Amino acid sequence: MTTLSAAVTEARNRFSEAGLPDAAIEARLLIGGLLKLTSTEVFTGGDRVLTEDELARISNAVERRLKREPVHRILGSREFHGVDLLISKETLEPRPDTEILVDSVLPYLRQIVAAKGAARLLDLGTGTGAIILALLKESPETQGIGSDISEDALKTAAENAARLGLSERFEAIRSDWFENISGRFDIIVSNPPYIRSDVIPVLEPEVRDFDPSAALDGGPDGLAAYRAIAADAGNFLEKDGVIGVEIGFDQKETVAAIFRSAGFKLAQAKCDYGDNDRVLVFTVKEA
Q1: Would you say 126 and 172 are in contact if contact means Cβ atoms under 8 Å apart?
Q2: Which of 41, 137, 139, 182 is the most buried (most CB within 10 A)?
Q3: Binding site annotation covers 70?
Q4: What secondary structure does DSSP assign to 27-40, as a single string?
Q5: pLDDT of 131-183, one tens digit each?
Q6: Which residues participate in substrate binding (predicted)?
Q7: Do residues 258 and 234 lie in contact, with contact meaning Cβ atoms separated by under 8 Å?
């Protein structure tokens, strides 16, 4: 008979031997997630005897992690801004740093709702829907569109909206940036692909081999998506609207210059938890 404590210890040891960082945390997170247990329940329920089915599922998951598949991809979901989001093959795994984009845009959204009574959002390259669904959750007066070129991503975003009770205020549209978008929006947000093409082959296996390349590859200089967004955003943004984008750690000046040349001014810049530049917020330049 194998107990929960023994299974966690074995997984931790195997992860540690394989050189995986945070082996103890990942072992608890993986096994707890598989068994639908909180971290506290994993700690306090160590004497629980696992069934053969549970042991088989744990063994399979441990082998997948040893092949560098991320824990949350194995579990099929990840927490983001207080909600659990499904992840699929063609969606980027939501990261904590992206919550900074949500928190940066939220005060502007609340100001707009206070002034107008409602707001419209557009999330370009929505993936799981993480950004826009977090904003809709915080602002009941807001409606929004999440666009993506991936049908798999749009299906996942729509399913996440349904799970959160947000389907009536969220629409998923297949679009290459603004191609199939119409109307104007109070806020446009995006976490676009921003990694240089030549950097992708040397990324950690968890990112390189499991995150979709379309959500990573920003072209030769990593800036292709920002040029596309900045070039057309003025045609879709209200005159008092706001654009919020996530950026790479070394892209603040270049991305700001791209948006300035397209008629926007930098209103705010925020760093991530590692003190790297991560979010830029733009408004329309006054005539």
Answers
A1: yes
A2: 139
A3: no
A4: HHHHHHHHTT--HH
A5: 999 999 999 999 999 999 999 999 999 999 999 999 999 999 999 999 999 99
A6: 191-194
A7: no
